[in-house]
Write a structure and sequence with these properties.
GO terms for molecular function: cadmium ion sensor activity; DNA binding; DNA-binding transcription factor activity; lead ion binding. The protein is α+β, with helices and mostly antiparallel strands. It is built from 10 helices and 11 strands. The chain is about 45% helix and about 20% strand. The strands form 5 sheets. A 3-stranded antiparallel sheet has the order 1-3-2. A two-stranded antiparallel ribbon has the order 4-5. Strands 6-7 form a two-stranded antiparallel ribbon.
Length: about 240
Amino acid sequence: MDARTETDVAQVAAAIGDPSRAKVLLALGGGGAMPASALAAEAGVSNSTISGHLAKLLDARLLTVELDGRHRYYRLATKDVARALEQLALIARPLPVRSLNADTRAKALLRARLCYDHLAGRLGVAVMSSLQEQDVLAAEPAGTGDGGSVYVLTPHGRTELTAFGVDLQRLPRRRSSVRYCVDWSEGRHHLAGPLGTALTARMIALEWLRHGKYRRVVHLTAAGREGLAATFGVPADQLG
């Protein structure tokens, strides 16, 4: 069998490249599943038009579809799709804001949002920074010669996160459980991977975070503001 030497980047780029399909993918960036009608509303197209867009995204393996009786729900195929969208956002120009509602949504996304299933935005970056300052995470050389780093969970960090209620025994026993994304809005790292997912889920369970009315947006509650400052030392001026 011939070795696979190249990938069809053009097909994936073409699938993402349509503005309506890009809006579909971004709407699903929080990790949830949505029906075609809701995705049509997010993309600003008719229900009849969205079917063609969804077919192209499925063909490019960017989406999967789940059946629930007569209903079909769509979600991102893998976390890698969400990470790719986050990286594309780093080099993309911002969309023009044409309404008060769009401005409110844009500002909320910048403050705190979900990147698939983990915390991103200004708040996500602040949490990541504080985890390092509190010796929960430590940066080590990646060993690739490019000057990059990897993050590892310290012994102190294991104690702190276990006390916080994160079940570390359920995380993969490998370094890659501590992953990061370069946050597109902040240009700095936020915590991703299994640990980022578990930490975000715990904050939601404690009602430190609540889902907003906009897709992907989360809001920091009063309990979360107090808890992040007391537990992880996140400075108050980074919690606004």
